[in-house]
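User: I'm new to structure prediction. If I give you an amino acid sequence, what do you actually give back? Let's try with this one:
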Amino acid sequence: MEKRSLGTSDVQITPILMGTWQAGKKMWVGIEDADSIKAIRAAFEAGITTIDTAEAYGQGHSEKIVAEALPDVRHQVEYATKVSVSHLKYEQVIEACERSLTNLRTDYIDLYQIHWPSGNFNSEIVPIEETMSALNLLKEQGKIRAIGVSNFSGAQLAEAASFGRIDSLQPPYSLFWRQVEQDTLPYCIEHNISVLAYSSLAQGLLTGKFERGHQFDPTDNRANNKLFQGENFERAQQALEKLRPIASIHNCTLAQLALAWLIAQPQTNAIAGARYPQQAQDNAKAAKIQLSTTELAQIDGIGRIVTDPIDNNPIMWDF
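Assistant: Good question. You get back a string of structure tokens that encode the predicted 3D arrangement of the chain. For your 319 residues, that looks like this:
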């Protein structure tokens, strides 16, 4: 899989990234460590070398699973992890990074990201200058290679960038969730900031496997996902039916089509999770799909069946 530059850094990433929120187990149902390890390994063997995780995913459990899956190929992969919103004070950032280094069994992190802006989830307000100061020190020390942010608005991204180089933004972004195109994507294009789209398959909705009437376990985070509720879900089903003929032309799945469309957008790469090896292998194949300009526009229009009626709140869940 041909790699791309991460912002202006010397880090190279794959356009499809392996997402490992589910490997942390918390807020997911039916996840087994052995399956997660096999899926992460399968992603690597299929050409996905960039692995995204976070200390918040099962309180470090996801990071440990990533390390368990890839101990012998550390020099061939890129680790992207995140500091939690409750650890944004200067000393907390330093300590959190050390924990992540330990969990990942490595002496450097390729991309270290602020998971949520300060103040989210009733967290203490910490000036972004203080957080960035700690991140800049970690970068100078070689403990991290690049700095990124996640879930930041355009204004928050610009403020963070005034205190140091930001090489990536990680927002929710998929064919069915596109607020980033209005707020932050233009800034990222202008300033050569890579977009690492999470929930790139709309938490599985774009796979087409969830039929009308599907009910999630109440402890599954998708039970609160706006896209799986009411009219949003119904519009999604209509859009999926229109996407199927295009997927058929390319002899690919709906999921692969959605990923191929996403990584064809400016500056954009797609994080896709997988519970099982075959899913990871299938995700990797999306990088080989070539969509024409006409097809990209057609898919864009179909996606708007879902996105146009949705409000501008960038948070995908009704937590």
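You can read the tokens as a compact description of the fold. Here is one thing that stands out. The first strand starts at residue 4 and ends at 5.
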